[in-house]
Each structure stands twice: as structure tokens, then as C-alpha cells.
């Protein structure tokens, strides 16, 4: 339902754990957290102020390309960690997409670590592509379900979380179309019932 050629961007709170007993990488500049979880979250609000939710399926990452994901700041510019040189790791577990990084390799990465440690930067986003026909909409719960991710590009520490307005607009249009179909079906059902009652009264 989402446009599959447009990278999707989602924001989460960056949970940094300095004192973890089981670091995935031995470093004094170690951070870890979840880029996303499998719990539903509010994606946006419709024109009436009603929340529209999104949920990532636990199976969504099966077969996804995420073999050289990078860690950036605001999804642009310098790379502070990456999988191919061993400074960034990703793991899908029961909770979601777990991320860990060693921010010791460059002065810029160490500065990002200090910004995170001080609480100046406490959000992160991840960019990904939804596979063709990889999401569905549950009208009863007003929830988009991402069933299949084709690519994960980056996880970024961010100053102000970004929204992909093209994607959001496309999804709003999907909801409007679904609601119109439901309304039309309800109207047709009402007319059939009225006709049945009318014929029954003859």
C-alpha cells in the first residue's frame, strides 16, 4: 500500500546503555538500543485528529538486505559506524531491531557519543524500503502492518525526527479510499435492507 520506491523514515527514542554488562563490541564509546520494535506506534493523525498506527511484523525482516547498514547523523553527511568495518551491528530479536555501535574510531564519532551521553541527542531514525505489496491496512484497528522490508539503509541519530511526507500523503490517500469503500458497502447494505422490508410489507 505504501509506495515501495520511496525510503521510509521512522523515529524512535535512542536508548543508550553505557553500563551494560554484555557489550557486543568492547569500546569506551559503546552505544546500543532499538531502531524499531514490534509494538504498534502512532504513525500520524488523520484530518479528524484520529491516530493512525503502524506495526512492524516480527517476520518483516526475513530476507531483508541489511548487510552494510551505516550509522549517520540526520541521515546525511559523515558515516560514524558501519557494518562492513565491524563498528555497527544489527540483530532482529523478540523485541525488535537491536542496534549496537562503537563510536570510537573518529573524532566526529566520539563527539556524537558525547552528544548522546549528555542527552543532547536522544532520538534515532531508520530508513528502509517496504517490499512490493509488503504492507496491509487493518481498518478495524486503523493500523498499517509492515509485513515485508526489502532493504534497511541506515540508522541515524537525529536532532529533529524526519517524516517522509510523500509516504504519509500516500497512506492518507489509501485510508480515504478504504473508508470510501466501507461507506459505499454500508450504504448498499442499507438500501438492500430497505428494499427487503418494503417488499415484505407488500
Key terms:
four-stranded mixed sheet, alpha+beta, 12 strands, five-stranded mixed sheet, single chain, elongated, 202 residues
Sequence-ordered SSE layout with sheet pairings:
Elements: E1 8-13, E2 30-37, E3 41-45, E4 51-56, E5 70-73, E6 76-82, E7 88-92, E8 96-102, H1 107-117, E9 123-130, E10 135-138, E11 143-146, E12 149-158, H2 165-201
Parallel strand pairs: 4-11, 5-12
Antiparallel strand pairs: 1-9, 2-8, 3-4, 5-6, 7-8, 9-12, 10-11
Structure description:
It is a single chain. This protein has 202 residues and is an alpha+beta fold. Helices cover 24% and strands 37% of the residues. The strands form 3 sheets. A 5-stranded mixed beta sheet has the order 1-9-12-5-6, covered by helices on one side. A 4-stranded mixed beta sheet has the order 3-4-11-10, with no helix packed on it. Strand 3 and strand 4 form a beta hairpin. The N and C termini lie far apart (47 Å). Residues 162-170 have low confidence and may be disordered.
| Biggest sheet strand line-up | 1-9-12-5-6
Helix content: 10-25%
Based on Cα principal axes, name the global outline: elongated
Terminal Cα separation, in Å?
Answer: 47 Å
Largest sheet: 5 strands, mixed
- Helix/strand/pairing category: alpha+beta
Q: Which band does the percent of strand residues land in?
A: 35-45%
* Overall residue-averaged pLDDT value: 82
Strand tally is: 12
Rg, nearest Å:
22 Å
Amino acid at each position: 500500500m505504501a509506495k515501495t520506491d520511496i525510503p521510509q523514515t521512522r523515529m524512535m527514542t535512542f536508548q543508550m546503555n553505557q553500563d551494560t554488562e554484555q557489550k557486543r563490541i568492547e569500546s569506551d564509546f559503546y552505544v546500543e538500543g532499538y531502531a524499531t520494535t514490534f509494538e504498534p506506534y502512532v504513525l500520524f493523525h488523520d484530518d479528524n485528529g484520529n491516530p493512525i498506527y503502524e506495526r512492524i511484523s516480527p517476520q518483516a525482516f526475513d530476507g531483508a538486505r541489511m548487510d552494510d547498514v551505516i550509522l549517520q547523523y540526520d541521515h546525511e553527511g559523515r558515516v560514524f559506524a558501519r557494518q562492513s568495518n565491524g563498528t555497527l551491528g544489527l540483530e532482529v530479536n523478540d523485541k525488535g531491531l537491536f542496534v549496537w555501535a562503537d563510536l570510537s574510531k573518529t573524532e566526529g564519532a566520539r563527539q556524537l557519543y558525547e552528544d548522546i551521553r549528555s542527552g543532547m541527542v536522544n532520538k534515532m531514525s531508520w530508513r528502509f524500503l517496504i517490499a512490493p505489496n509488503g504492507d496491509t491496512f487493518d481498518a478495524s484497528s486503523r493500523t498499517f502492518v509492515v509485513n515485508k522490508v526489502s532493504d534497511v539503509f541506515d540508522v541515524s541519530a537525529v536532532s529533529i525526527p524526519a517524516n517522509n511526507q510523500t509516504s504519509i500523503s500516500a497512506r492518507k490517500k489509501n485510508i480515504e479510499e478504504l473508508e470510501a469503500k466501507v461507506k459505499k458497502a454500508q450504504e448498499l447494505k442499507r438500501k438492500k435492507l430497505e428494499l427487503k422490508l418494503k417488499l415484505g410489507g407488500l
